[in-house]
Amino acid sequence: LCSSKRNEELRALLGEQMSLMSIMQEQIALMNKETKHLSNNLDQLSGVTVAAAAGVVSILLSASYDKVPFVVHASLFILLCALIATLMSYIMYTSSDATIPVLMDALKRRFDKAQAQCNAHLQSSPSEAEDSNPPDSERPTSGRSVPGPNEDAEAKDTPTVERKLEAETKEISSKAAMEDKEWKTSGKGILMRYHTDKNPLNCWSQPASYIFKLRGPNYLNDHVKINSEQSRFTTECNELYKTAQTLNHVASMEHSAIHKLRKEWSHPEGSNPYPIKFLIIQFQLPGMTYTTYMKARVGQSPAKASGYTDFFKKFVEGPDDFRNERFKIVPIVNVGSWIVKQVVGGKPALLGRKIECKYHKGTDYLEIDVDISSSYVAQNILSVVSGSCKTLQIDLGFLIEGRCAAELPEVMIGATRFHHVDLEDIPSL
Fold it and tell me: Is 227 helix (H, G, I), strand (E, B) or coil?
């Protein structure tokens, strides 16, 4: 048990280091972008200065210097000083222009090497053998018992239904990972592009669930929060586009990604313990709409999540009043100014209490429409965030609030990370 706990702590530490490396890589990309912008400005300024200097020389050559008025003398002197300063700046910049990208590339290679070492260590860790779904680099669900020698031998001779189900799930998961998912990640049309190291800006990714601190199993007594277990759903894709009017029940519309996601559903029969396959959350923003699509994570055994399954079923099939009192959002600003961090706060909030939420239940999904315009406070927060969105990296996590022992510990439903999104570059529907 001590070894398992130490492995989990080491895994959390390595995950934090990998997250920091990702943030640094994004900062390198921003520095490179600003450096190129500075280079372009210097080129333009140099051209203007050289043209002015040519005019000065032509004046001096075409007229007697003593007959030129004092004002012209002063103007010529200022132009010459500006020419010298610009040329010196240009020379200094061009002399280090080759050095800056080299340093950035070297730093990025060090990050890539460290990240590869972290991945190799996580894959060789004993606790990793239990995790059949590595995309988020998250901890395996706790509470799994370790079989004894006799039990293990018996399991090898006569495989149980649960072992067969896990084997089938792993096979389907590996096949699905090899399929081309370009339509969800390339950023074509109204879909947002998925994060890559080569292009880490204006995109999204899925953060690890354990970075979110949620109510622990004894929270009612000790008020201690713990790192979340693996999220119950995975983020599949995100839509962001401009709209002339507010859209309700996006899943019922032709452009919705839910139609393609249904065709890709490949979970084995009996592996989904929840009453829905997809959770859709739409934020109705002024002049635009953001929608995230989450799918039930493969490999979840109904027997191992019986308590949470009942709780989640109550949320999906319960009345709107219950949903409004339990649906919670957790925002985390990883990269951003002090003002944005203070405005966003980072504390969990019940969306339905302050903002109008509408729920649409389908045969295999639940859609939650969040109307930001219904809250004055939410609009003010949005105005601050949208003004500096290109400089931010923000995580949005979603869960159901637990208020009794049977509903604890809390577990993330899913989460999305936004990487320096350019709101001026989003398409129209």
Answer: strand
Nearest one of 409, 380, 5 to 225, comparing CA atoms: 409
Asked whether the beta carbons of 240 and 293 are under 8 A apart, the reply is no
Taking only the tens of pLDDT, the chain with its 429 residues reads: 555 556 666 666 666 666 666 666 666 666 666 666 666 666 666 666 666 666 666 665 565 555 556 666 667 677 777 777 776 666 655 554 445 555 566 666 776 676 676 666 656 654 433 333 434 434 334 433 334 444 444 434 444 544 544 555 455 444 444 444 678 888 888 999 999 888 889 999 999 998 999 999 999 999 999 999 999 999 999 999 999 999 999 999 999 999 999 999 988 887 888 999 999 999 999 999 999 999 998 877 666 666 788 899 999 999 999 999 999 999 999 998 899 999 898 889 999 998 999 999 999 999 999 999 999 888 888 888 888 899 999 999 999 999 999 899 999 999 999 999 999 889 998
> Do residues 276 and 296 touch, judged by C-beta distance below 8 A?
yes
Distances (CA, A) of 257 to 161, 183, 262, 263, 359: 34, 10, 9, 10, 18
Question: What's this model's pTM, rounded to 2 decimal places?
Answer: 0.66
Q: Which residue has the tokens 């004046």?
A: 59
Q: Which helix (H) or strand (E) holds 278?
A: strand 278-285
Token readout for 311 is 């709780």
Phi, psi angles (nearest 5°) of residue 60: -65, -35
Separation of CA 41 from chain center: 32
Pairing of strands 278-285, 365-371: parallel
CA–CA separation, 225 vs 100, rounded Å? 43
